[in-house]
Fold:
Amino acid sequence: MAGQHRVIHLHASAPPKPAVGASCNGCGVCCAAEPCPLGMLLSRRLKGACVALRWDEPGARYRCGVVQEPAAYLRLLPASWAGRLARRWIAAGAGCDSDVEVA
Ligand code: SF4
Ligand code: SF4
Structure:
């Protein structure tokens, strides 16, 4: 939100956040600041880090646990549905859609 500052904790090796519209590099800023609609349901909160946000050590980037392992988070939904649901909300392939400003 404009004029508001918050501290979010990210892995020291996480890549810097790219500009809005650039390819997603897994910096994790969006999901650490505020969960997507699916993440809000899973995390039971509107602000703060999503419970499904995972650090990928070999890839040195964050990934969405729902996309990686849908059944672990959405046991009542078929895995293929859960993956599709999460992908839609992180706008996979559409570039970074987070306007969170990093200082
Ligand atoms: S969508 Fe943007 S802020 Fe979110 S992980 Fe990808 S690059 Fe980072
Ligand atoms: S994209 Fe995945 S990790 Fe990010 S907030 Fe949504 S459910 Fe959580």
Strands lie at 53-56, 61-64. The pocket of iron/sulfur cluster (ligand 2) is lined by residues 31, 35-36, 38-39, 50, 52-53, 64, 66, 86, 89-90 (CB under 6 Å).
